[in-house]
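Follow-up to my post from last week.
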Amino acid sequence: VTTDGPRRRNEQGDRLAELYRELKDELLTVAAHLTGSRASGEDLLQDVLVAFARRGAAARPPEGRDDARRYLVTSLVHRARDLARRRAPPANDETAIASATSDSADGDPIRRSSLNEEAGRVNALVLALPDEQRAVVTLHLHAGLAFREVADLLSISINTATSRYRYALLALKRQLAPRGVPK
Amino acid sequence: VNEEYDDVEALVRAAKLTTTREFDARVLAEAGAPRARWSHAPRWAAGIAAAVALAGALTAAAAGWFDHRPVRPAVTSPAPGEPPTVELHSNRLDDASATRVPDPARTPIEGTRPAVAAGGTELEVEEEPEPTTIGTGIPSNVDARATVREAPIVARVRIHGVVKGGKEHHELLPQGTIEALYKGDAALVGRGVTIHRKRSDVRKSFLSWAREGEESLVSGAGTIVMPLMPTNVGIPEQGDLHLRIAFGERFSGTLVRSDLPVRPASSIEEEMVGMLRDDLVASLSATDAAVRRSSIEALRWWSGESFHPDVDELWGDELTARALLAAGRDDDPRVRLNAGWIVTPAAGEAGRELLQDLLFDSDPMNRQSAVTFLRNQGNSRFLDTIESVRDSKWDESLSGTSPLSAKLVRNHSDETLRNLKEHGQAAVRADIAWALGGTKPAPATSAALLAALDDPDFEVRRGAARSLGRLGGDGVTDRLDGIPNTEDPRVRVMAAWSQVRLGDKRGYAHLSRLIAGEDARAATQACTALGRIAKRDAVALLLQASEDPRPVVRGAAVLALAERAKKGDAPHREAVDALVVRLAHDDDDYVRAAARAAQLRRVGRPVAATSPEDREGLERLGYVGYVDDADSGTDDSDDE
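User reply:
Got it. Predicted complex:
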């Protein structure tokens, strides 16, 4: 039976909201890439955040933004793995990811539109990577984890992590080359 | 690497997704204000609803306990052999219900008494609702021997029912109560809620279940776990308790509409689970080892054997995690073992450490269980552990009741093969037969396994058939092909599967015969085996099986195809898609449910019948003989 007072709940709520605002895009990207679709990623992220909030009510949540981020990313990975064990990967909704990316709301509309087109395309390519490679890429590039951390989290060796990463980037580079990725 | 791909990295980094406003509102409402949650409500609705919820909580507090008793649905008396039809009549289905939000911190466990729960927390007690038997389709009496000292006792009950979908989308929350009688008096009573279905799963699956006017099977999800608390009626020290379902099955429903701030039933469900879990976790520090044992067993049921195991959920709560790790070092071996079973599937560092400890535990049963756990793991998460154990002092003598695990033993000795032939215990011979499949192929091994096909114990023969499929060898396929029709069907299924695995197409003919045979269980197992084979021949046979007159076989066929489709095989995916359309309108509930499960790629069979005692139900489904959903054993991580 929880004994939290309203003040503590309010403080936690505020803190969570602040944390959410800072990390939401990054976490959604990681979640979507881990699950292979935006819709599943949203579900996953929502579950993780709710569990995180509940944990905050039961015990001391991780201190500091980086610790919280690491905790949330770890939870995302664990839950995504759990989901994958239970059910088949959803159909890739590349278009959904691409169009959702275009919701981004800053900058000049024309430039934004062209940037978003590129971002949507890159996202679709990332999404088309094999699951294992995609996980390494998103954890390293979006979650900002070092390869050692990625390897620990995915229970693979660091050599495996780096080689999956290399294969993934090689594939992406090949796909992107016709559009003229800067050398 | 980084220099070479700097540009690509920059592009990927920049291609970040952004959340939508609706999503932000939903998450903040749900995570930021966990006591007043609602689904998919726009932000303004969330604000209004928070106010309404607060008012409701105050009203409820003033008026005493919120009566959250499950809604009594009207249940029409079903025809014999038919599951009951449930129509939802819920007082939560109108606007007024929005004000009736219970304070979860004060939500009582209905019908429990006395007031003291484990850990010394005082809970107030509601009057028990009048016992009314609603619904059929569950065994109303379960004889069980229980030792009351080992409270909280946890009972598991399967529920089953049919709900008629309406225009609205409902979420269903199966609930049940149970009481244990001792010498005619109610000695223990408890209530349970299902704890396995995540909110999003419920919502998604129900959307497809509850089409307008359509009756849908909602069973298969129905394991209820409930701790039974002692009542103040005579509590025996130890004795035979007679468990019975006190109130039958019930469903409560909550209307989920975006314009109504109605509290989803699932949130109550989660809170109730939290309470149960907290009680059990508190009991882990009890001085009485019996209490610790029963508590950890209950937690294990919850984490590992519920419909959707969610170990990560346990780890999300630091207090629980800490209590479980402490339980892993408990003086009592059963407590240590169960803690290990809960923690190890998480495969984190703590999980691996506990597993290592168990492999070297002072109790032989614990060591054996750790071996069994490793054996059953179908993936590579524990490869590091296996490798380190292989290189350590662990050997066969350290295992408990049986000597080997396929994954722990790199090389076996002549004595192992002798034990396969001569050991007095059939279980040991079976374990060896099974384990040898994981060793390096050698003529002597295959020869020993071929000889084991004549073992008097069917499990040994089955294990040998399976291992031969992995090792191959001279004359293996011919020998497997020659297994007589009088052999146990489970062995025949395994042998046929091994034949196919070794490239011998005669195996398909055997599987086809098993499907066409009288034994429905053999037919379903053959379907499951075919689901593990990534070949068009297998698809063709499964499509044939999908037209079998027995519903249980049709269901198994579509589920087997879904299993394969889950692994990404295009021919299976196409077949499933076509089949789902056809079987979604099948005459039989079970087949329709299986088709939907296949459609959702939720592999795992719906409950085939209400209970093993329900002979009529079983016969209707086409089961002949026995019902045993034992694993077909053909689930290899490295199959074709």
